[in-house]
Amino acid sequence: MGVVRIAILATAAVAAIVLAFIVRGMTSGDAAAPAPVAMAEAAPVTKVLVAKQDLPVGTRISPTMIGWQDWPAEAVSAAYITDGARPAPPAEGAEKVAEKAEEAAKVVLGGSEAIQALDGAVVREAMLAGEPIIARKVLRGGEGGFLSVVLAPGMRAVAVPITAETASGGFILPGDRVDVIHSREAPDGSTWASETLLRNLRVLAIDQSAEPEDDANTMIGAVATLETAAPDAEVLARALADGEITLALRAYTDINGPTGRGGGVEAQTVRIYRDGEISEVSVR
User: Does the structure show a pLDDT above 90 at 36?
Assistant: First the structure.
């Protein structure tokens, strides 16, 4: 066999071997392709009614202060207020299931009705922003203990009889600040003496209304309930038994001013002798 023929055969053999490896790699690529990874299903959630801002004790809730927030279904307590809809399964037609659940929620305490039911309620226990609303922390209209929630710690509520004349013509509204003026007749019956007994007291209610009607500028009532410290409640009770009480309306800017007793010492006349002249000055 010639040298040339041997070289041709060797080259053909090498080419055949290389081609075999190439074909094997191409056919085994499909079998070695990685299997698709299954996507993890998201944990089911439901909507829970929560505080959208910090709610201190005594806050009157409005719809803007609360709202719905997604909450893990497995972490929902029985005390939470939910929208009444069950978590929708991640399957075909999930949107239709959610719509039916939303319609069903309208017949129970859920959806917008839950927010409306809490409109005007008073916070009994402080709540932080994002904290779920639970029934024991709020006091809704018609439930007992409303005034005790509104009162500041250590304060007392005292009812004072009023008329339009003794209550600034009816312009005193719940939430306003007033001075209590005590007027009584002198022991000899000759004159009347008046003094500011208590100052900067908060008006809790007029009659049984703790809030004026919408756009109301006046409230005519027979009784005003005032917030006062415990020792001053006794002073106010004695004044009611001995004379008349007038409420003087204070400016809104006095809301953070000092509050409490305003004197209680009768004015006395002092005679001053100067350069042979006598003058009288009224002092306390």
Answer: no
**Spans of all domains in the chain:** 45-139, 151-268
Specify the CATH number for 45-139; select among 3.90.1210.10, 1.10.10.10, 3.40.50.620, 3.40.50.2000: 3.90.1210.10
Please answer whether residues 138 and 62 qualify as being in contact, where contact means their C-beta atoms are separated by less than 8 angstroms.
Answer: no
- What is the DSSP secondary-structure string of 80-145? B-B-SPPPPPSSTTHHHHHHHHHHHHTTSS-HHHHHHHTTT-EESS-B-TTPBPBGGGEE-TTSS-
- pLDDT in the model for residue 120: 81
What is the pTM (predicted TM-score) of this model? 0.53
170-217 residue pLDDT tens: 899 988 999 999 998 877 777 788 889 999 999 998 988 877 777 788
